[in-house]
Amino acid sequence: MEGDEVMSEPQPASAKGANIEEKQYLLRFNADTQSHLHVMDTEVCMTSCPDKICTIFCPAEVYKWEEIRMHVGYEGCHECGSCRIGCPHQNIKWVYPKGGHGIVFRLG
Ligand code: SF4
Ligand code: SF4
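Above: inputs. Below: predicted complex with iron/sulfur cluster.
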């Protein structure tokens, strides 16, 4: 009908396309002093994994390739478990953080 307009309600920021930094604001981390993630053999990464795929599939960007080694920023891990199955060489040892450590979700 002419003259009719459909107005959309403004959406809260959280419902819009939030970037990873905004989403991470909803998360808190209680990091252990020891990593719960271990790249077992860096040589395998160097010689057999040209795409360093863990640096792509990890939603928290925990893995960063630094020329000859893999930096593992375990403190920011979201515990999604993807690296358990995502490494094509089963080269990542993944366990849950010790009790009381790891990610905490802020709800509301
Ligand atoms: S995906 Fe696995 S083999 Fe490839 S770089 Fe990451 S840890 Fe290394
Ligand atoms: S469990 Fe998920 S968030 Fe944590 S390092 Fe693995 S892929 Fe990244």
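Residues 24 and 36 are 20 Å apart (CA to CA).
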